[in-house]
């Protein structure tokens, strides 16, 4: 079976399964999930109410703290100047601050001032309310601020207290300042508008009508109670007051989520079926017209590559995965061509190195008693076998203090020079410190090393090149006798592994030959 037919059957089977499971899933799960979402929404709304009330309490506490940590208030507690009360706490103050009660107590919790605002006038707080406030303060820690809900008889209030300190928040505390705000209808209307919720504070009679005794008991213990009808769902919860009482509240919302889920499920079934059919037709068209045809052309191109000379590269179409496959094939072919070229170049280098070694071994200069001429043959062989533009052979003088240049061959001009000398430490130290591990040859490619080597050449009166430098040691029975130095002209030219091996072979051969010639020359001189 063709791959296009397999893909078509697989797509049709998958789409059929998706339609079947989608139909069952939408009818069996969507409505249930929307019902859970509805319950989660009512719970989040309850939490929003609690957070909004906490924000109101926090705002009242910050306002109370600002007044309590005011130098004028602190000085009033010290000198009891009545002008402070007359100028700072009046009807306009209550209206501006938006509070209903303000009370000031000294450090012994005795009331110095306590008034409430009602119908545009300030009135003293009743003795019964003072007793309740004293009882509330007795429950709080001395010198600590507090805030929360307070049930003052039938009144429900937001209350905050803060110790009276200096503006820097330092003590000792001179007393406590209390501010309270009634949880009246304007405050509830403000919260409803801010939260966009149906919020209510039911009284005992309304709770008795709506809830059973067990539900009411659980509500007063801090649990949340849900009451569901066909049209709406109501959640009951309670705020914890300062003296341990519970203040019930309710949030009501309609069954919009369940109905919305049913409607969405029906629409999804219709639209999903139509989209799946269109999608399957589009996918099959794209596969047959785009992908399958391009796969066939790619396969044909790959078959033609087997016939040498017919096609050298695969045709690249588009910018997708198939195009990337074609690009990878072309990259592989480029790599093979590059490897083939490198192999040919390596073979050419090996032939040149073999020719240079054969010419070096058969040269009559090595059989005569002329060390300089023999050294010239060696340096010439180095340049011919590696493509170096300049090569030189250096031997240690007696005492190993100096290096003497037996021969320096410049390939471009075919010139030989001798007579250069330098301290042994200049090359030996650089060689021993820079080479890595047990590698005998040292290739100088770092710009800093090359600059130092160029400076050394300039001291010898030789012009430096920009290419990499090869330093190969001349050893005999573990003793360092000198170096062969070869230089490339351009920095792009790299020293290949076979070239390093060739240079080491020439080093071994030239070491034995030149040592033998030197001995013969000394014997003849005696």
TrEMBL record:
Coiled coil: none annotated. Residues 289-341 form the HAMP domain. The chain crosses the membrane at residues 268-287. Pfam families: CHASE4, GAF. The keyword Membrane applies. GO terms for biological process: signal transduction. Keywords: Membrane, Transmembrane, Transmembrane helix. PROSITE patterns: HAMP. InterPro entries: CHASE4 (IPR007892), GAF (IPR003018), GAF-like_dom_sf (IPR029016), HAMP_dom (IPR003660). SUPFAM superfamilies: GAF domain-like. GO terms for cellular component: membrane. This is CHASE4 domain-containing protein. The lineage of its organism: Bacteria, Pseudomonadati, Pseudomonadota, Gammaproteobacteria, Aeromonadales.
């Amino acid at each position: 079976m063709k791959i296009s037919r397999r893909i078509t059957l697989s797509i049709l089977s998958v789409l059929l399964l998706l339609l079947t499971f989608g139909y069952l899933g939408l009818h069996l799960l969507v409505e249930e999930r929307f019902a859970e979402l509805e319950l989660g929404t009512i719970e989040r709304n309850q939490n929003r109410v609690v957070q909004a009330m906490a924000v109101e309490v926090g705002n009242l506490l910050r306002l109370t703290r600002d007044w309590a940590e005011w130098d004028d208030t602190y000085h009033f507690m010290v000198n009891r100047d009545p002008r402070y009360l007359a100028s700072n706490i009046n009807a306009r103050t209550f209206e501006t601050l938006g509070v209903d009660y303000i009370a000031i107590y000294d450090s012994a919790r005795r009331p110095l001032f306590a008034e409430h605002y009602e119908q545009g006038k300030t009135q003293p707080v009743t003795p019964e309310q003072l007793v309740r406030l004293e009882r509330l303060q007795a429950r709080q820690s001395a010198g600590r601020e507090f805030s929360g809900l307070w049930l003052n008889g039938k009144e429900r209030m937001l209350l905050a207290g803060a110790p009276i300190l200096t503006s820097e928040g330092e003590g000792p505390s001179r007393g406590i300042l209390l501010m309270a705000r009634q949880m009246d209808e304007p405050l509830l209307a403000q919260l409803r508008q801010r939260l966009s919720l149906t919020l209510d504070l039911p009284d005992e009679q309304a709770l008795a009508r709506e809830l059973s005794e067990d539900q009411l008991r659980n509500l007063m213990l801090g649990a949340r109670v849900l009451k569901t009808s066909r049209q709406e769902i109501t959640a009951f919860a309670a705020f914890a007051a300062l003296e341990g009482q519970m203040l019930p509240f309710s949030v009501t919302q309609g069954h919009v989520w369940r109905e919305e889920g049913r409607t969405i499920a029906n629409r999804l079934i219709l639209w999903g079926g139509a989209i799946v059919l269109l999608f399957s037709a589009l996918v099959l068209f794209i596969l047959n017209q785009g992908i399958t045809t391009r796969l066939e052309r790619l396969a044909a191109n790959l078959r033609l590559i087997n016939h040498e000379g017919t096609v050298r590269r695969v045709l690249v179409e588009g910018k997708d995965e198939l195009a990337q496959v074609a690009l990878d094939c072309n990259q592989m072919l480029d790599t093979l061509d590059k490897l083939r070229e490198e192999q040919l170049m390596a073979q050419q280098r090996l032939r040149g190195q073999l020719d240079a070694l054969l010419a070096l071994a058969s040269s009559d200069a090595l059989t005569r008693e002329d060390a300089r001429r023999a050294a010239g043959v060696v340096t010439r062989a180095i340049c011919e076998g590696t493509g170096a533009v300049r090569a030189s052979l250096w031997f240690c003088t007696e005492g190993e203090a100096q290096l003497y240049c037996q021969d320096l061959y410049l390939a471009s001009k075919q010139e030989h020079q001798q007579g250069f000398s330098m301290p042994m430490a200049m090359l030996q130290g650089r060689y021993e410190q820079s080479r890595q591990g047990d590698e005998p040859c040292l290739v100088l490619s770092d710009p800093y090393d090359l600059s130092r080597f160029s400076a050394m050449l300039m001291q010898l009166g030789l012009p430096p090149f920009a290419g990499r430098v090869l330093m190969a040691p001349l050893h005999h029975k573990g003793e360092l006798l000198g170096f062969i130095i070869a230089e490339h002209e351009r920095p792009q030219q790299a020293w290949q592994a076979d070239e390093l091996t060739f240079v080491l072979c020439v080093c071994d051969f030239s070491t034995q030959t030149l040592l033998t010639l030197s001995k013969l020359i000394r014997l003849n001189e005696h």
